[in-house]
Specification:
By secondary structure, this protein is mainly β. The chain is about 0% helix and about 30% strand. The protein contains two helices and 16 strands. The chain is globular. This is Neprosin PEP catalytic domain-containing protein.
């Protein structure tokens, strides 16, 4: 039987603040869905399922733990700036700053949360965040997306509703739909809260956007994620195709380094939390940073604004520059 709402939610710390910003997607301007239906983005000529195993750029970093101090251990054609924690978790959440980064052809820029479990060939992941991906969507708009795999991105999983798996329950949010508003440099900042958590009653993994339950991945889809997540990752990733014979100029986040100025310049994750085995949200502890090339994209923990932003960090960069070749 289809479940319409989560039967349990993570227990929040009193200090948490996800705000009251009303989140809208462009399609909301043109109407709403009748009861009992969900919004589905029309498939244009570029919006097509990409066969798993054939498109390397979709193999996100979370399927393997990389030692960024060793060049040979960095996944080919990927650059990233993240923080990660290992342990036993029932979910994760964060507010992610919304931007519209510039991307080169056939490349993507994403900012998201990963929850994962299992060794490389059986890696299970659930992912949620925003992406600019012209090759998939046919434009450069900032879009809400989700993704899953149960075998290291080899034969199972997909993004949004491009294959069976995710059970959408809300008519208010469109998977793959673009956000109406994004942040502007030195101007208004827009963000949205993203949440992945496991239902304690039946084990389904729910995805929420701005506090709205979007739907769930049934527990039966997974093997290693059927119990708990073993790794959680937050941050940005780009695909670097080097089509011009040099490092890509695809931007991550706002396209500006944390060192250029934080508030209203660099992109951020705030109110970063894990959901522990007792279903309580907590700050990540014993985390480690994964920065593939700080000359291209970097990350900086925010140690000054905990009372207003919770555990947070700034991240991103422009890609190609004098030091990033």
């Amino acid at each position: 039987m289809k479940q319409m709402t989560p039967s349990s939610y993570p227990k929040r710390m009193k200090s948490e603040n996800f705000g009251t910003l009303q989140l809208t997607q462009t399609w909301n301007k043109y109407g709403s869905c009748p009861d009992g239906t969900i919004p589905i983005r029309r498939k244009g000529k570029n919006n097509k399922p990409i066969p798993l195993g054939e498109h390397n750029r979709l193999k996100a970093l979370s399927y393997e733990t990389h030692d960024t101090s060793k060049k040979d251990d960095i996944p080919e054609n990927h650059e990233y700036a993240t923080i990660s924690v290992d342990g036993n978790f029932l979910g994760a959440q964060a507010k992610i700053n919304l931007w519209k980064p510039v991307t080169e052809a056939q490349e993507m820029s994403i900012s998201q949360i990963w929850v994962a479990a299992g060794d490389i060939n059986e890696r299970n992941t659930i992912e949620a965040g925003w992406a600019v991906d012209q090759d998939t969507y046919g434009d450069d708009r900032t879009r809400f997306f989700i993704y899953w795999t149960a075998d290291g991105y080899n034969n199972t999983g997909c993004g949004n509703l491009m294959c069976e798996g995710f059970v959408q329950t809300t008519s208010d949010i469109c998977l793959g739909g673009d956000f109406t508003d994004v942040s502007t440099l030195n101007g208004d900042q827009k963000d949205a809260s993203f949440n992945i958590h496991k239902d304690e009653s039946n084990g389904h993994w729910w995805v929420q956007l701005q506090g709205i339950p979007v739907g769930y991945y049934p527990s039966s889809l997974f093997t290693t994620l059927s119990k708990t997540a073993k790794k959680v990752i937050w941050g940005g990733e780009i695909y670097n195709g080097r089509s011009k014979g040099r490092h890509t100029s695809t931007q991550m986040g706002s396209g500006h380094f944390p060192s250029e100025g934080e508030l209203k310049t660099s992109s951020y994750f705030s109110w970063v939390k894990v959901v522990d085995e007792d279903n309580v949200t907590k700050d990540p502890k014993f985390f480690y940073e994964g920065i593939s090339n700080p000359n291209c994209y970097d990350l900086k923990i925010d140690n000054l604004n905990y009372h207003t932003n919770g555990f947070s960090f700034y991240y991103g960069g422009p890609g190609y520059n004098d030091k990033c070749q």
